[in-house]
């Protein structure tokens, strides 16, 4: 997991050299370059596990604003530099949370 804890609005900044700590299934795709939004093709900034989709903020608002069920999806921000998953999450339309690291 990327330890991106930056305070930027659209994701974090990874603090790991080499970005090799992520064991997620999408880590390899994320580190090979810019991850495209699955709807419009622009650079993705969020990953929704429930939909198994990488989305930009504009498409995320459209998809997850559709109904109350979609608004309950928890989405993970992508690191601005390496595009790995961070510890920052988006819940609902705008509630942003940072989960602590478990040692």
SSE topology sketch:
Elements: H1 27-31, E1 46-48, E2 53-55, H2 57-64, H3 68-71, E3 74-78, E4 85-91, E5 95-98
Antiparallel strand pairs: 1-2, 1-3, 3-4, 4-5
Structural notes for this entry:
- The protein is an alpha+beta fold and 103 residues long.
- The protein contains 3 helices and 5 strands.
- The radius of gyration is 13 Å and the shape is flat.
- It has helices at 27-31, 57-64, 68-71, and strands at 46-48, 53-55, 74-78, 85-91, 95-98.
Summarize this, please?
The protein has 103 residues and is of the alpha+beta class.
Mean pLDDT, all residues: 77
Secondary-structure-based class equals: alpha+beta
Count of DSSP helices? 3
Share of helical residues = 10-25%
The major sheet is characterized as:
5 strands, antiparallel
| Unreliable residue stretches | 1-11, 15-23, 27-31
Can you list the strand order of the major beta sheet? 2-1-3-4-5
Shape, principal axes of CA atoms: flat
What multimeric state do the chains show? Answer: single chain
Strand and helix order: HEEHHEEE
**Residues in β-strands, percent:** 15-25%
Number of strands: 5
Computed Rg:
13 Å
Q: Separation of termini?
A: 13 Å
Keywords:
alpha+beta; 5-stranded antiparallel sheet; 103 residues; 21% strand; 17% helix; disordered N terminus
């Amino acid at each position: 997991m990327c330890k991106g804890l930056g305070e930027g609005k659209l994701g974090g900044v990874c603090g790991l050299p080499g970005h090799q700590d992520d064991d997620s299934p999408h880590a390899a795709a994320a580190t090979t370059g810019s991850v495209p939004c699955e709807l419009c093709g622009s650079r993705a900034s969020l990953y929704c596990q429930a939909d198994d989709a990488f989305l930009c903020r504009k498409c995320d608002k459209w998809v997850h604003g559709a109904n109350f069920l979609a608004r309950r999806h928890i989405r993970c921000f992508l690191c601005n530099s390496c595009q790995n998953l961070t510890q920052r999450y988006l819940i609902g339309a705008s509630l942003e949370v940072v989960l602590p690291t478990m040692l």
